[in-house]
Amino acid sequence: MSATVVGSISTTPALTPFSSRRTTFAANSTSTNFPSTPLSFNLLFFKLTHSASSQRISTSHGFKRFSPFMEWQDCTVKMEIDVPISVAYSCYSDREAIPKWMPFISSVKILPDKPDLSRWSLKYKAFGRDIEFSWLALTIGICYSCYITFLQPIPNQKIHWRSMEGLPNRGAVRFYPRGPSSCVVELTVSYEVPQLLSPVASALQPFLEGLLQRGLERFATFAKSYT
């Protein structure tokens, strides 16, 4: 079985509009004719049309060659707090008060109509530049016994969040009892390193761990006076 090529190919295919370069294939089980054009021209035509078609498909699906972000990094710090676990949990649940003790958080605003969502702003001067980001965070809770995600934290156990837009990040605050009047607060933050900070990516993790540790130290003082 062979195929007969009907039509012609321009000698300058790169300058011919894609819509005018067409080839019609007619199957003929008894024909012994071969393409009248040289094989090199047919291969070139296939590459040109295949390349143009692939480019249109990638564009139509919204694929991007480059991303403004790079790898994820994780930071975990913890500290024993001299307040009951219920007080520590209530204090940390007050999201709009977080800028009072977290060094690099400038503001947190809970959406009036959606209390599980909050708008966060980060402003800090580091590595010789002014760093400023914002994101919309969803506060959620996880029940480990039933593996179900809820739209509320687990009282006195865990507060979990993830960003919905803006700077990609997620994290959790866990509370462990140490007695009737003390507990351990463990804070884990995972974030995608912005392209702006990629030159200092290796130094960013220990730097942020230091900021988070300072934040917990200030949180310990703030929680003692929290009402």
From TrEMBL:
Entry-linked InterPro entries: COQ10_START, ORF3, START-like_dom_sf
The name this protein carries in UniProt is Coenzyme Q-binding protein COQ10 START domain-containing protein
Domain called Coenzyme Q-binding protein COQ10 START: residue spans: 81-219
Q: Entry's Gene3D superfamilies? A: 3.30.530.20
- Pfam family, any one: Polyketide_cyc
